[in-house]
Amino acid sequence: MTETPVTENKAETADPKIRVKGLKKSFGDNEVLKGLDVDIASGEVVCVIGPSGSGKSTFLRCLNRLEDITDGKVVVDGFDVSDKKIDIDRVRQHIGMVFQHFNLFPHMTAIENVMLAPVQTKRASKNEARATAVRLLEQVGLAEKADAKPANLSGGQKQRVAIARALAMNPDIMLFDEATSALDPEMVGEVLQVLRDLAKGGMTMVVVTHEMGFAREVSDRVIFMADGYVVEEGTPEQIFGDPQQSRTQDFLNKVL
Ligand code: ADP
Ligand code: MG
After folding, report:
1. Of 11, 42, 112, 168, which sees the most CB atoms within 10 A?
2. What distances in angstroms separate CA 230 from CA 16, 92, 141, 183, 242, one per listed residue?
3. How far apart are CA 66 and CA 196, in angstroms?
4. What is the pTM of this model?
5. Category of 170 on φ-ψ map: left (φ > 0), alpha (ψ -120 to 50) or beta
6. Which residues line ligand 1 (CB under 6 A)?
7. CA–CA gap between residue 214 and residue 98 (Å, rounded)
8. What is the mean pLDDT of each run of 10 residues along the chain (256 residues)?
9. What is the ipTM of this complex?
């Protein structure tokens, strides 16, 4: 009997956590994603930057099929998201998403917001969900606000509750769409710190952001999008230090 080798190089053979091939998305006649190819490895932190209207949000929303995919393939965690027949709710349980506007339930306390999805989807008993929520609120620095209603929280605190809520489903991947854009400047730092900690903890993250300092410091890779294309991608050093495309250079000249 021949033995199968057990020391295969995982890094070379492992499938990416997210594989996007030829992704196109149109709204009516308006093609806003024009064929994206992006692979994201497990544990990788990818920041997506680019001008307003370039398709960054649409790209993110295609990853968990909040938008129907017009053409191409999107595979997340081994699930073919672009396959209409797939149980998308099951896939979404692996993917946490945080938006610019936190969308917390106003009549529920912070901890109730964090507990809701695990209880509703029957992933956890109420007691388990509460224990997890306590831990997560602690993780985002809000243990003492567990019983506060959203109206009594600052923008930065609300966004941190929203992150805890997304983490409550124990996702493998976190998507952030301009999570700090609606915040007063003095609150941006506390939210970015939570993202930084998540990145350090090995979470796979796709982060659409205008915070160039954050992208430079935290990301493993930066993707610059314009007009529905990935114009350029590379390490933060490459993109911010030595951008090759004139569109990237123009954009960075405007925002830096
Ligand atoms: P970004 O996040 O980079 O600012 P978006 O992905 O939000 O860009 O938008 C890209 C383009 O798609 C824009 O022209 C926008 O008007 C259009 N778009 C986005 N969502 C919709 C929608 N639900 N219906 C129609 N057009 C949309
Ligand atoms: Mg957007």
Report:
1. 168
2. 18, 24, 36, 27, 17
3. 26
4. 0.94
5. left
6. 27, 30, 32, 50, 52-58
7. 17
8. 45 80 98 98 98 98 97 96 94 94 95 97 95 98 98 97 97 97 96 97 98 97 98 98 98 96
9. 0.99
